[in-house]
Design goal:
The complex is a heterodimer. By secondary structure, chain A is α/β, with parallel strands linked by helices. Helices cover 31% and strands 16% of the residues of chain A. Chain B is an alpha/beta fold. The chains are: A alpha/beta, B alpha/beta.
Chain lengths: 468, 195
């Protein structure tokens, strides 16, 4: 029987197996940031240990950083302390840090790929669930807790149990205004927020292989929102072209050797997945969420469904559904389009790459932002910020009445100054619409950068297909 | 890590499904650089209103409920990988969370902190909720050694699965870092063979 791509990469990284226990699993790269690493460094210090392979760790500050006036000290004491603790820890343990003043600083899942650190066939972890992003390169990448961050720092390995495998295939023609974000929100609405639990997902089919690397990262980023450990897409010419020439990409003869290896990274034709889903891309329109988990999404021209419509059966399921609608203050049967919006956020590790800002520029060009909307446009990294300038996108976006902020996680998670007030509605390109995710009482509707831009122009939820 | 013994205790019911780690511990409380004190802010925005008054309709602030066991709705601990969620639940005083399906990362984080995640069938989960509803002082026995949960008032039992290695670690308070350090030579050999 053939092997899946996941199993091939997994097998390559098993150092040893504990009988009736997990595998000692080798990690090629660990990404770290200021929030989930301090207690791991403390653990090492208490044990008198060093970081085993400091050169295999890539560090940046992202969650706490302000997105304005980054040249000034961070005003919040705790945030400033957390960021300065990262600086001290990286210094003490010999880890290179792309900190606040560094031209490579940004959201960890934007920085790693754009520097060429993330490569096909690798294993990568980070104390951050959206580490799944790096699976876009045909790699095993997943989020871990702080105890596991410490394990990898101490040994470059993790105790890991093999996940089951799932394949999600989407083929067919992509509709107008439909982007990677819409495809993945559609898949999550079908598989549900818990449907991927215990699985590693391979995304296959033309809807994914036609995507750019930026689009593939958006898809894999959101695989955790189905409960999956991670997602991956087999590497192809698009992947190789993206990696080649980047700062940390292999060069010369090493490149040729790696490329030959990477070309073998695909699931065998006769590989069997534990679970399979197939969808037709023709059924996907721009998507938006109406509830408080990412599985609660509908096509933008649809209405808020009922618990029955989405197949909720048990009392607990129906109660949870009602609680979500109550939080959002939405009623069953209401139309999503035309709903009032207070904030629009374009950013986060899901959608803050250059392609996302190209899409925003395409929509807002020659138009004006609605007065009732506060819009936060936050590049994922200093390099993306520069590229927005270099490509002339900033000019277009600013002429439409928007302002581009400085890189960071921003309004994705209410950990820095960018918070949505209680009761306000925000169309957000981030990854989670949980209660209070963007601030206590904030109401989040997840969508693509194009939908966010169209909404910022209209002042109400709007379909980007109408503006293209 | 603290050793895990058999627990006999009443339980706190949190039947909401898909409880994410942003609810368990909101991001604004993740700015600490130590592991202590997260219990105070466990479920902060479900326990307290804007003016910091307790919301007594929420199970943790409802004086009818207490105990070292939390019984939770399906897909508990989804979302962010923050281990602070497991720290907060443990710091608050819980030793066990019982659910019909845990999010993967939360499950590992709990195990790494001496908090036992017990996965039971959806049918048995419903029985647990009913038992608490019928008598909020009803006690439950969680026996890790023999891998079962019992509703002590009715004697109904269900066994649960746990990886043998993880079970040994919990019972003896063993730590994964110590184990991995002991594998140093194997790891170096693996690296040499790949190069």
């Amino acid at each position: 029987m053939g092997k899946t791509l996941f199993d091939k990469i997994y097998d390559n990284h098993v150092v040893s197996s504990i009988p009736d226990g997990p595998d000692v699993f080798y990690i090629d790269v660990q990404y770290i940031h200021e929030v989930t690493s301090p207690q791991a460094f403390t653990g090492l210090r208490e044990r008198g240990l060093k970081v085993a392979r400091p050169k295999q760790i890539c560090a940046t500050a992202d969650h706490n950083v302000p997105t304005e006036n980054q040249h000034l000290p961070i005003s919040n004491d705790l945030s400033r302390h957390q960021v300065s603790t990262l600086v001290k820890n990286c210094d003490e343990f010999g880890i290179e840090l792309y900190g606040m003043e560094h031209p490579f600083q940004g959201i960890v899942h934007v920085v790693g790929p754009e520097l060429g650190v993330s490569q096909p066939g690798m294993t990568m972890v980070c104390g951050d669930s959206h580490t799944s992003t790096h699976g876009a390169f045909g790699a095993i990448a997943f989020g871990v807790g702080t105890s596991e961050v410490e394990q990898v720092m101490a040994s470059q390995c993790l105790l890991q149990q093999r996940s089951k495998t799932m394949r999600v295939t989407v083929d067919g023609e992509i509709g107008k205004g439909v982007t990677a974000k819409d495809i993945v929100l559609y898949v999550i609405s079908k598989v549900t927020a818990a449907g991927g639990t215990g699985y590693f997902i391979e995304f296959a089919g033309s809807a994914f292989t036609d995507l750019t690397m930026e689009g593939r990262m958006t898809v894999c980023n959101m695989s955790i929102e189905m409960g999956a450990r991670g997602g991956l897409i087999a590497p192809d010419q698009t992947t190789f072209d993206y990696v080649e020439g980047r700062d940390f990409a292999p060069k010369g003869a090493e490149w040729d050797k790696k490329l030959a290896e990477w070309k073998t990274l695909k699931s065998d034709d006769d590989a069997i997945f534990d679970k399979e889903y197939k969808f037709d891309a023709a059924n996907i329109e721009p998507m938006i969420t109406y509830g408080t988990n990412p599985g609660m999404g509908v096509g933008i021209t649809e209405k808020v469904p009922s618990a029955n419509d989405i197949g909720a059966k048990s009392i607990k399921e129906i109660e949870s559904f009602d609680k979500a609608l109550d939080y959002m203050d939405f009623n069953v049967g209401e139309t999503m389009m035309g709903k009032k919006v207070d904030y629009v956020f374009v950013g986060s590790c899901t959608n803050a790459r250059i392609e996302d800002f190209r899409e925003v520029a395409q929509i807002v060009k020659g138009r004006q932002k609605a007065d009732n909307v506060i819009a936060w446009l936050v590049p994922g990294s200093k390099q993306v910020e520069k590229q927005i300038q270099d490509e002339g996108l900033a000019e277009i976006i600013e002429a439409a009445g928007f302002k581009i902020r400085q890189p960071g996680c921003s309004a994705c998670l209410a950990m820095n100054d960018d918070k949505v007030p209680s009761g306000a509605y925000c169309v957000s390109t981030s990854n989670r619409n949980f209660e209070g995710r963007q601030g206590p009482g904030a109401r989040t509707m997840l969508a693509s950068p194009m939908t966010a831009a169209a909404t910022a122009i209209a002042g109400v939820i709007a379909n980007p297909a109408d503006l293209i | 890590m603290e050793k895990f013994n058999t627990i006999i205790s009443p339980a706190v019911p949190l039947s909401t499904e898909n409880v994410d780690t942003d609810q368990i511990i909101p991001a604004r409380f993740l700015k600490a650089t130590t592991r202590d004190g997260f219990g105070d802010n466990l479920f902060r925005d479900w326990r307290f209103d804007k003016d910091d008054n307790p919301i007594t309709s929420f199970c943790l602030e409802d004086s009818n409920y207490s105990g070292a066991i939390m019984v939770a709705g399906k897909n508990f601990g989804c979302g962010s990988s923050r281990e602070h969620a497991a720290w907060a639940i443990h710091d608050y005083g819980f030793k066990v969370v019982i659910c019909s399906a845990f999010a993967d990362i939360f499950n590992n984080n709990a195990l790494n902190n001496g908090l036992l995640p017990v996965t039971v069938s959806p049918e048995f989960l419903t029985k647990l909720f009913s038992a608490i509803e019928n008598d909020n002082n009803a006690t439950f026995k969680v026996d890790l050694e023999n891998q079962f949960v019992e509703i002590t008032t009715t004697g109904e039992k269900e066994s649960f699965e746990i990886n043998g290695y993880r079970k040994e670690c919990l019972i003896n308070g063993y730590d994964n870092v110590d184990f991995l350090i002991s594998q140093k030579d194997n790891i170096a050999e693996y690296e040499a063979n790949r190069a």
